[in-house]
Structures are given as structure tokens and as C-alpha cells.
Amino acid sequence: MIDSHCHLADDTFAQDLDDVVRRARDAGLERALVILEAGNAKEAEQAVRLDALWPEVRFSIGVHPHQAHQYAADPDRAAAVVRDQWTASPGARAIGEIGLDYHYDFSPRDVQQAVFRAQLRLARELDRPVVIHTREAEDDTVTMLRHEGGGQLRGVLHCFTGSRALAEAGLGLGFYVSLAGIITFPKAEELRQTARHIPLDRLLTETDSPFLAPVPYRGKRNEPAHVARVVDALAALHGTSAADLAQQTSANFHTLFRP
Fold first, then answer.
1. How far is it, in rounded angstroms, from Cα 253 to Cα 259?
2. CB under 8 Å to 205, separation ≥6 — which residues?
3. Going by fewer Cβ within 10 Å, which terminus of the chain is more open, N or C?
């Protein structure tokens, strides 16, 4: 199994990172993709520690839409910060998470769009996949991926909770769709219906830990070992075994991120 999106460099894991990694390995995880906030020195420091503990981990670096306001005066500087850190990080495999978040609007929407656009262009330049965050911004996200992608971008719609139309648009662009613990929530039936229509060869599994712990851990800190619950849920939805689902989604991860 692979956790294709987690935040193990977050302060939440600073005190027991060794145990978290051990539990992940004991649960059968091959590796994880750890998301780093570009320019965050504390996360970068913990990433070095994590790399020593779990050499199979890989990293994705980007400016989240919540932090886009920090680059309002010069959106291209966001891409420059990502580029510098990415170049200095041998384990980096992707640009992200990046995108648009119109739910919280912690950054002005025009600034979010400019910073997103700059990072999409960087991903094309580096020929690397993107990890996309989109919340209540489906149309603008798809439009920007189409306009800036030029048919060359590859990536994943992470922690997918969107509409079936968004899933179909992403698949049409050649993107993967990643499901997290929300798929196990009792009220997530609409999401489960959408997940049934995502081809197995385009699925990824993730935790987005420390957030969104799946049932039966809901309300507690999430961690990569819990991706097994996501695998179980998706396997049931697709009428296959958890072992086969894990094998397929791991292969998909390798195809996209080339770890």
C-alpha cells in the first residue's frame, strides 16, 4: 500500500515520528508522499529527519492556496521559492499541494489564481506532476488546468470530495483521483457513488494525515497506517479484494510519480 498524500512534516508528528513510521511499515505501507509547504523551514527540517527514518518516502513541494496571500505582490516568487526548494530536495517528485480554495478564502481569489498559474507553469517546465487542492472552485480549477496544462500536465485531484463532473473532467485531462478517509464516513454516500465510477487504473489512496481520520478513528489524529481503511472501502466499492486494490493503486502511484 501507499499513502499518496500526508503531512508527516507537520508539528503534530514531531514528538512520535519514529512510532508513526513504524506503524506505517507494520501496516504494510511501501512508501508515502509527504507534502511540504514551500519556504517552511520547520517542515523542511522534519523532512530531513523523516527521510532518514523512512528512505522510501518521497516529497511534494508547493504553495497552498491558503498561503498564496504571502506572494500577492509577486506571484511568480511563489514558483521561484518552490523551484529552489525542489531543486535542493533529492526526494522531491511533485509540485503541490497547489490549487484554489474558495471555501475559506484565506487568500484573495485573484491572488490564489495567479500563484496557482505560476506553479502550474513551473510543473510544466520541470515536467513533474501536480498535486491539486480544489474546494468550491471546480470550474476555475478545471479551466486553469486546461489553459495552463497545454495537454502536458499530469497530476492528481487529491482528497477528492467533488462532484462527478469534476471527477470526469479530471479524468479527461489524464489526471488521477485520490480518495481519503472521507470515503468511510456514513454521510459520504454521494462520494462513494462517484468513486464507483472512477476506473481502477486511475485511483490513488491517501490519508491527508493528520486530518480526516477514517472510521473507526474519526475524531482522532490520522496517520499513514490508516490508509488501509481507505483501501478496504474502495475495494468493497469496486468489488475486488483489498490486496488487489492496494496493488493497483500502488502501481498507479509509480506510474504518476515515478518514485
1. 8
2. 1, 2, 3, 4, 178, 179, 180, 227, 230, 231, 234, 246, 249
3. C
Dihedral sign computed on CA atoms, order 138, 142, 148, 152: positive
Q: Which residues pair with 176 in a beta bridge?
A: 156
CATH of the domain at 20: 3.20.20.140
Bridge-based pairing of strands 2-6 and 31-37 is parallel
Q: How confident is residue 149, by pLDDT bands cut at 50, 70 and 90?
A: confident
Strand 155-157 to 130-135 pairing: parallel
Domain of residue 219, residue span: 2-257
Residue 171: which residues within 8 A CB-CB, separation 6 or more?
177, 198, 199, 202
DSSP annotation string for 214-234: PTTSTTS---GGGHHHHHHHH
Q: Which of 253, 246, 249, 183 is nearest to 212 (CA)?
A: 183
Sign of the C-alpha dihedral computed for residues 185, 191, 194 and 198 taken in this order: negative
Strands (E), the chain: 2-6, 31-37, 58-62, 92-101, 130-135, 155-157, 176-179, 203-205
Closest residue by Cα to residue 254 from 82, 161, 129 = 129
CB 162, CB 138: distance < 8 Å: yes
What does the pLDDT read at residue 259? 85
- Is residue 210 reached through a cis peptide bond, with omega within 30 degrees of 0 on the bond before it? yes
Place of cell 475495494: 235
Q: How far is CA 203 from the centre of its chain?
A: 12
Q: Is the pTM of this model over 0.90?
A: yes
In the predicted model, what is the mean pLDDT of residues 253-258?
97
d(CA 9, CA 21) in angstroms, rounded, equals: 12
How many domains are contained in the chain?
Answer: 1
